[in-house]
Design a protein that fits this description.
The structure holds two protein chains of two kinds. Chain A is an alpha+beta fold. Helix content of chain A is 36%, strand content 28%. Chain A has a single domain, classed as Heat Shock Protein 90 (2-Layer Sandwich). Chain A has five helices and five strands; from the N terminus they run E-H-H-E-E-H-H-H-E-E. Chain A has a five-stranded antiparallel β-sheet with strand order 1-2-3-5-4, covered by helices on one side. Chain A is globular. Chain B is of the alpha/beta class. Chain B has three domains: 64 residues, 2-Layer Sandwich (Alpha-Beta Plaits), CATH 3.30.70.20; 285 residues, no CATH class; 91 residues, no CATH class. Chain B is built from 18 helices and eleven strands. In chain B, strand 2 and strand 3 form a beta hairpin. In chain B, helix 4 crosses helix 9 and helix 14 packs across helix 15. The longest helix of chain B has 20 residues. The termini of chain B are far apart. The chains are: A alpha+beta, B alpha/beta.
């Protein structure tokens, strides 16, 4: 089952749309509540990342009865140093973004903690593609 | 009691209902469908919030109550009166008058429910301190909210504070007090005047408990009429009972902010009205709100002052209760009355009997226990939904195209229930017009269609 969501640059007011839709679907599938929570948190973080740092993008959700895979593909500045970005507290967010309560440098580490697989493809000046997978059975 | 049995106090009188769909369109859990021209309730989706009762234009939705005469099954008849009951009466009627008159109706004892609210909030504060890891903690004061969380937000069930409501505390106290006075337990009947349907449902099938603490429930509107009539008819009483069961800060416990203002924590919210609550719980469930300690959630607008069985305007009721609270606060400051009430003597006993069993989720969201089967159904729903017109016209007897798609995937409805589908099928000659009419009759009843077809 395939679903797509569009992410608009700077549109923080709509952050959480994709994760809420995913949550609704997973509740219908009777997935374990803790697992749903993890997925929702990870997708929400990724949504906020794309809104804050990129120039917009798309979220692709693929779902079957065993796993969910979410790909967030953006057109944006890319991540110059992925290892650095994976460290807690590291952030390149602008003061404006921080004022809105985002940009604490917890995004990527938080995603990693909540998913079974995480794959980051990024190219400076082109964009970033984050692929995350959560298995329902494990 | 069977795990699948849930008593609902909200009923629909099919003799009065004419299938206007207002209740169906306003139900926050999509629990209503029109069948045979009448609104019908999916029992497992209903949370007893009473929205259907509020919007019904014909009075077809009603709240079942115990027969008033059933109080005479007991030698000692106790009435538990929530503070909001006193807020129904105009300013010139004193609380002590209501206390006195209500005993004249046939009760031997009267007590205000919020007498125990002080102990209740003290325990809540202790629970908040002891359960740091379960934050945000959610109050179980409003039974419609408990049920809403069970069916719609199963992930938050563990955040509910597993504690009895003030009505149970007060009932437990009075029962003990009377037994201590030497009265036989089976001679004691405790009756609660309820402002809403959810409290009745909670009494008849308590969540996390086997047996209710009260013996019967009386509807607030009925009791209001009885008491008011008595007051109007004769002004003098043999005895006046003073109405000082409750301390000033607990008089307004059932109003919005009533629990929040007594909760000892940094970040708490008081939210009333069920749609507001649903909107907020979506955020809580997503972990979008940080460092949240405590939530007071109430299904009705203006909390219990807006209960469906209250009489009069909820804002006026709220104001009268606030006035009473201020008056008590003045008296407490002047030393005319004490904040230390008799019930505090039994605090230890009440604390020992305060906990309820585990509150279990009973998700109405899941399409099947088995994820594979649920996934098949979900795929089916998506496919059906893409074919439906997305007009949410209600002609199929469901509140939305999405709800119909779900009903079809779960074998509770057919594709041909959709009027747009019928036209399509007729065009392809796979459905006769007569068959379409039969389908519509099943949803809307014989008479709605017969008239149009036979009368020319």
């Amino acid at each position: 089952m395939h679903t797509e969501f569009v992410v608009v640059e700077g549109d923080f007011s709509n952050a959480g749309k994709a994760s809420s839709e995913i949550k609704k679907t997973l509740k219908q599938l009777n997935i374990d509540n803790q697992k749903i929570k993890k997925i929702v948190v990870a997708v929400y973080e990724a949504e906020v990342n794309a809104i804050a740092h990129a120039y917009g993008g798309t979220i692709y959700v693929d779902l079957d009865h065993e796993k969910i895979s979410v790909v967030i593909k953006d057109v944006g500045p890319g991540i110059p140093d992925v290892d650095m970005a994976m460290q807690k507290g590291f952030s390149t967010a602008s003061p404006k973004v921080r004022e809105m309560g985002f940009g604490a440098g917890m995004g990527l580490p938080n995603i990693k903690n909540n998913v079974d697989e995480l794959d980051i493809k990024t190219q400076v000046g082109v964009g970033t593609e984050i692929r995350m997978v959560v298995n329902f059975l494990s | 009691m069977s795990e699948n049995f849930f008593y609902h106090a909200l009923k629909i009188d099919h003799k009065i209902c004419y299938g206007c769909t207002l209740c169906m369109r306003n139900c926050p859990t999509e629990a209503i469908r029109v069948r045979n021209g009448k609104a019908t309730i999916y029992e497992n989706k209903c949370v007893d919030c009473g929205e259907c009762y509020k919007v019904c234009p014909s009075g077809a939705v009603y709240v079942a109550q115990d027969d008033f005469k059933s109080i005479y099954n007991f030698k000692y008849r106790v009435v538990l009166m929530p503070s909001v009951f006193l807020g129904q009466f105009p300013e010139d009627i004193k609380a002590s008058q209501v206390y006195s008159v209500i005993t004249e109706l046939g009760f031997t004892h009267v007590m205000e429910v919020e007498a125990s609210a002080m102990i209740h909030s003290k325990l809540t504060n202790q629970y908040i301190i002891d359960n740091e890891n379960k934050k945000p903690l959610i109050s179980t004061f409003c039974p419609a909210i408990v049920r809403l969380i069970q069916v719609k937000f199963p992930a938050l069930v563990d955040n509910l504070i597993p504690m009895k409501a003030p009505v149970d505390f007060t009932a437990t106290y009075l029962r003990k007090k009377l037994i201590d006075e030497g009265i036989d337990e089976k001679d004691i009947g405790i009756f609660y005047i309820t402002p809403c349907a959810a409290k009745i449902a909670a009494t008849k099938s308590p969540v996390g408990e086997d047996k209710s603490t009260v013996d019967g429930v009386l509807n607030m509107d009925t009791m209001y009429n009885m008491v008011y009539k008595q007051i109007k008819q004769h002004k003098d009483y043999d005895k006046t009972i003073s109405a000082n069961d409750v301390s000033s800060d607990c008089v307004i416990f059932s109003l919005t902010n009533g629990e929040k203002r007594l909760a000892n924590c940094r970040k708490s919210f008081a939210i009333d009205e069920i749609h507001n609550v649903i909107e907020f719980l979506e955020k809580v469930e997503n972990d979008e709100i940080e460092d949240l300690d405590f939530l007071e959630l109430r299904a009705c607008d203006e909390s219990c002052a807006g209960g469906i069985l209250t009489c009069g305007n909820r804002f006026l009721i709220n104001d009268r209760m606030m006035q009473r609270a201020r008056k008590w606060a003045d008296r407490e400051r002047n030393g005319e009355t004490s904040r230390k009430k008799e019930i505090l003597k039994e605090e230890k006993y009440l604390v020992e009997n305060s906990h309820v069993g585990k509150i279990l989720p009973r998700s109405m969201m899941k399409l099947d226990e088995n994820t594979s089967i649920a996934f098949q159904k979900l795929t089916k729903i998506r496919e059906i939904e893409s074919k439906l017109p997305q007009t949410d016209c209600n002609v199929c007897g469901a509140p939305s195209c999405h709800a119909l798609a779900e009903d079809i995937a779960c074998d509770r409805a057919n594709m041909s229930d959709c009027v747009f589908m019928q036209r399509n099928l007729e065009m392809r000659n796979s459905l006769k017009i007569e068959e379409s009419v039969e389908i519509m009759k099943k949803i809307w009843g014989e008479d709605k269609l017969l008239d149009f077809i036979l009368k020319k």
